[in-house]
Design brief:
6 helices, mainly alpha, single chain
Length: 182
């Protein structure tokens, strides 16, 4: 019964967070020519995702009759949602970069060129070439192996935060003298 609640809650919040994450990604990609705004939006978007994970942990804890939940059950719930929302996010990015706006990397490259021209002599020609070459590497990120690798990396990062959130949000029995089981 406990495991079903963990999986059901994780699936529900995974889809919800994933859809919100996709909307944030759409907004972020629409700002891609302004690289500073793009980076700020990426950071703020991930903060929203972390906030939603805290909310999910709080809601999962409330499902318990006594409000107590151990680290294992809370992390299991959050990790299931991480698997789902990172999958949706990865699929959305792939679809966006491959079909919705396949020229976005070139637009970002142009934005970087404009930004470097504004800096004038502060950026050497060699630094400019290196910076612009990184955009060509971004095109390789759409290869199936790279997409899968990116998904695994995102799971590791979000999974780490899910574990930290689980540590913060768990609530053990105050009458228990035993340490909480993992």
């Amino acid at each position: 019964m406990q495991k079903n609640k963990n999986i059901q809650t994780g699936l529900t919040y995974g889809v919800l967070i994933g859809l919100i994450y996709c909307v944030i990604a759409f907004a972020r990609w629409s700002m891609a020519t302004n690289l500073i705004l793009f980076a700020v939006m990426a950071f703020l978007g991930y903060l929203v995702v972390l906030g939603l994970m805290f909310w999910e942990a709080y809601q999962r804890r409330k499902m318990q009759p006594d409000g107590l939940i151990d680290l294992k059950n809370l992390f299991q719930t959050l990790f299931v949602s991480v698997l789902i929302f990172e999958l949706l996010y990865g699929l959305y990015n792939f679809i966006h970069l491959k079909f919705i706006d396949p020229n976005i990397i070139e637009k970002m490259k142009e934005g970087m060129t404009v930004m470097m021209e504004k800096t004038g002599a502060q950026v050497s020609d060699e630094q400019r070439e290196q910076s612009l070459a990184r955009f060509d590497d971004m095109k390789k990120a759409m290869e199936p192996l790279q997409v899968f690798k990116s998904y695994l990396i995102n799971i590791a990062i979000s999974g780490f935060f899910a574990f930290i959130i689980s540590l913060i949000m768990r609530k053990k029995n105050p009458n228990s003298g035993m340490p909480q089981s993992m």
